[in-house]
Amino acid sequence: MSELLITSASNPRLKGLLSLRRRRTREETGQTLVEGYEEIGLALSAGVRPSSVYVCEELFSPAGRAGSQDIGHQADLLARLRGDRVEVVRLSRAAFEKVSYREGPDGLLAVVDRVGMPLGDLRVDGPRHLSLVSQGVEKPGNLGAMLRTADAAGVDAVIAADPVTDWGNPNVVRSSKGTLFAVPVASATTAQVLDWVREHEITLVVTTPETDLLHTDVDYTGRVAIAVGSEKHGADSVLLEAATHRVRIPMHGKANSLNVAASAAIVLYEAVRQRDAR
């Protein structure tokens, strides 16, 4: 299969890639960007097939390393994509650096379908379902970090309630290290999420500094959804009033709260600890 070569940073096709950084374009096209060897590899492992991949072999690391970090062999991944008959577009270094959205690009950028499903399509099987709810979280980096934790903790689903950013935001993909494609995700209003929680008889645990109940004093071994609020305001009154348990993480310093991704990680791993012990 012949491959297109683009050397001009002003090529119209590259303008289309740049437009996918905008949420409106992602919603109109149903596509988003995935950059990097590790992220694209995880997407492929999750069954995602890119519509096209843009490569700059000049940026590849022949040894599969960046400093002391093993980053894998980009050429092997490219061969796999070619074997799957994914369209490959070769870019000059200047053209690739024009469309790259990360520091120190490794020469791989893919266009994939946006992830996410309707809330009603999320499966809740068995008595040990565990999900994470993020309400109004604004920063893509925090959403991505929560996805990485959710994947590591074996969470069954991550739900964005009243989302401020979308799952297809390239910075969510980047900060999740590709785990966005490994964990089922959905978006809905807070009211819809609460209806879903009630329908499936899920215990709702909401983090807040305004409670005396410690996060370690709750039973997480059944069907549980752990919810965190926005960075600025925390969980709103609707979510707090619907909570089965409101829990706080002990704070011994001057601040009264943690970064939202850190809070989610601490409570999720308390759930993991209890489930492993059980």
Descriptive keywords:
278 residues, alpha/beta, 60s Ribosomal Protein L30, Chain: A, Alpha/beta knot, 2 domains, 6-stranded parallel β-sheet, 5-stranded mixed β-sheet, 13 strands, 34% helix, elongated, RNA methyltransferase activity
Give structural notes.
With 278 residues, the chain is of the alpha/beta class. The chain has two domains: 4-113, Ribosomal protein L30/S12 (60s Ribosomal Protein L30, Chain: A); 119-277, Alpha/beta knot (3-Layer(aba) Sandwich). It is built from ten helices and 13 strands. A hairpin with a 2-residue loop joins strand 4 (65-66) and strand 5. The N and C termini lie far apart (54 Å). The model has no long low-confidence stretch (mean pLDDT 92).
In short:
The protein is of the alpha/beta class. The chain has 10 helices and 13 strands. The protein folds into 2 domains: 4-113, Ribosomal protein L30/S12 (60s Ribosomal Protein L30, Chain: A, 2-Layer Sandwich); 119-277, 3-Layer(aba) Sandwich (Alpha/beta knot), CATH 3.40.1280.10.
Topology overview:
Elements: E1 4-6, H1 12-19, H2 23-29, E2 31-35, H3 37-45, E3 52-55, E4 65-66, E5 69-70, H4 74-83, E6 87-91, H5 93-99, E7 108-113, E8 130-135, H6 140-153, E9 157-161, H7 170-175, E10 185-188, H8 190-199, E11 203-207, E12 224-228, H9 237-242, E13 245-247, H10 260-277
